[in-house]
Amino acid sequence: MPSDRGFKELPHTADRAIRVWAPDPAGLFAEAARGMYALMGARTGAKTASIRTFESAGPDLESLLVAFLSELIYLAEGERLAFTRIRGRAGETAEGWDLKVDMEGESLLSMSKSVKAATYHHLRVNRFAGRCEAEIVFDV
Amino acid sequence: MIRLQDMIRISDYEWEIPRSRRADMRVPVRIFATRKMLENVLDDGSLEQAVNSATLPGLIGPVVVMPDMHQGYGFPIGGVAATAYPQGVISPGGIGYDINCGVCLLASGIEFDAARPHLDTLATRLNTHCPSGVGVEGVLRVTVPELDRVMIEGARWAFKNGYANEQDLARTEENGCLEDADPAAVSDRAKQRGREQIGSLGAGNHFIEVDVIEDVVDSAAAAAFGLRQGCLALQIHCGSRGLGHQVCTDYVQEFQAAVRRFRIELPDRELVCAPMDSPEGRAYLGAMRAAANFAFANRRILAHSARRAFEEVFAGKEKGWHLSQVYDLAHNIGKVETHIVDGKPVKVCVHRKGATRAFGPGAPGLPQEFRQTGQPVLVPGSMGTSSWVLAGMEASMRRSWGSSCHGAGRVMSRAKAKREIRGDALRRDLEGRGIMIRAGSMSGLAEEAPAAYKDVDAVVEIVAAASLARKVARLRPVAVIKG
Description:
The structure holds 2 protein chains of 2 kinds. Chain A is an alpha+beta fold. In chain A, 24% of the residues lie in helices and 49% in strands. The model of chain B has no long low-confidence stretch (mean pLDDT 95). In chain B, helix 5 (144-153) packs across helix 11 (279-314) and helix 10 runs antiparallel to helix 11 (279-314). The chains are: A alpha+beta, B alpha+beta.
């Protein structure tokens, strides 16, 4: 029986793409991070090296997802950190969506692949009863 | 999905998707390809992406697609689009995350037969002096004020600091410096990434390759370019590293609001854009030019390091070891150029994403020695196949916004390449064919296997047949350094 959350790589000629699913938007963000780190081939240390909070607001979940993944890409390359324990809350507001994510991360020992960016290419967060999913294309 | 019957055949090498194909298209799409090549890309999404690109506001003339086209994100790879300047838009996604990713070619007078016993050492020295790999830091670390100077001056910064000579600058697109770069429009995060990575190659499809000049097709142009049959040459393929990636990330995000403000409807949010005469458009132009200049300087520092490797290996042993610049050009960039539209010179912003400038004889901005030949056009193949040096032709100005192809173009996904090709077996195969390999990872090597790419010779045949560029020389790889 398929898990209620996870990610799967999709074919793409030159870049990398994943399908991500979870019961709710916050879970989707955590799975997207997991999928991206898998594409990166991220290898982390054992000890918690950093605890961070990421907060953002945007008109839609797609812009928050790109902003969140862009933050993780920067932290991976700029600070050598990967966040493997992610708990978040995403809530609808009058203007769109608010996101608050608490993240615990480890030192990034190595990455086998460079991910340049998370793109908006055909990005859509689809929400069904008890399930969210999205397809994300990464520039590599 | 675009079908073959949706296209009009102009010639054996040129096709058109008319504006009538979709209601939101503002201009047609012109594709340089054979029927067989078109059939091979019908289901990879690149033609759909070209049609999406044809919806941008302010486009002038057709969106052009090169024969090395393949699926990208937003724009297709191999796409060229021109927008009216300054009232048209600029689209960061039409330039790409690796701003001014490009190729530099240097040539030597070292005969391949004389060099053969030293190639293993040369590959090792190049690998030592030119840092490569994921997240690897460069040979320099500069302060933020110094980085600002790099972003303003580009290759001129490298010249002032002893990493380049005057000929290097003269033989670089735009002399290695885009005017009106604005470091203030570049985020602190982008600068942080840039100051650590300047002078590094990166990973992915970036490489340094030692080649032998196998065939000279046009001896006069080859002589003007400094290419001698049977001698070694060196290609460097890289761009603006994390600095450019961050600039594009920042502005793609910022432009999400801009398209709402300017009420621009787009079929794909990765195509977000802003008028060039708007505050958002001006800021991106300044930041993109700053990143492009960083990339010009980065390739100069790598070329300097490569020259050091050649000197260490060949000085005192072989004559002609000095590496002279042939040309350095961008294949992910947006530039304001003057093109003839409806018989009149018009300033346009040419977006080239996976396409190379290919100005013909007499074009402004070319150094004296290239005025008769046209600009060198560098078309790297995959690491086991030929690369080509072409010369830009006048017809490219009428047909393709002065542009040509930028490489072979992928046909196989990275995931599939890794499933079907073993990196260690590929390395043995390439070394068995006389190609030294230095690679950061075997899986990365497998992703870049020659089988993952189109036949570069077939790609070059098309741009030559369409008179966008003509053949000058074919190069064969003998050593490859990959991150």
